[in-house]
Amino acid sequence: MLVYMLLFALQLQIQQTVLSLPHLLWLYGMLLAGYIILPAITVFLLYKLRIIKSLKLDNKQDNAIAYLIFALFYYLCFQSVSFYAIYPLIQIYMLIPILITASYLIIHLFYNINAHALFIGAIIGFFIGLGYYIQQNNIWIILILICISGWMLSAQMIINKHSSLQIYSGFFVGLSELILLFMFLA
Fold first, then answer.
1. Which pairs with CB-CB distance under 8 Å and at least 24 residues apart come from 20-26?
2. What pLDDT, in 10s, does the model give residues 58-110?
3. How far apart are alpha carbons 118 and 116 in whole angstroms?
4. CA 172: distance to chain centroid?
5. Which of 26, 69, 149, 155 has the fewest CB atoms within 10 Å of its CB?
6. How many CA atoms does the CB half-sphere of 155 hold within 13 Å?
7. H-run or E-run covering 59
């Protein structure tokens, strides 16, 4: 999620001439609070109240509760920030984590996929789709992200937390989801 926030900050930096400094600081604060701080505190409080059994989220029920909390805070942050998001591309950009989290929750009800693979696939799909949407060549960013995803996902295979099918399916769901989103918009 930290990578997502950095990419969003870069997008807002491009449009800095449109938004004043207090509005930019408010947007950054809302993103930091809504995407990282508040969901983490809420999951920790649920752990202390023994609603979630472990912070590792190994249990399927704990995992679903945590991702529902994430999706709720992402949506609330989107609703509060969408008033200031002037360009539709920023609003789409803020809907991406909600879309990814919702698809993970739906798939996770029937089949166990790797969330890391889903999110790194979505980041790569974002840059492929964005390049298609704005007719820009992002090949170097995509290649670097593919190398990073190879390291991350091979580590998941080495520790045997997920099978290779669960990792590959998560990666391709995230990748195809974002590519199709941008192709639908174009």
1. 23/84, 26/84
2. 888 888 999 999 999 999 888 887 776 556 667 777 788 899 999 999 998 89
3. 5
4. 15
5. 155
6. 7
7. none
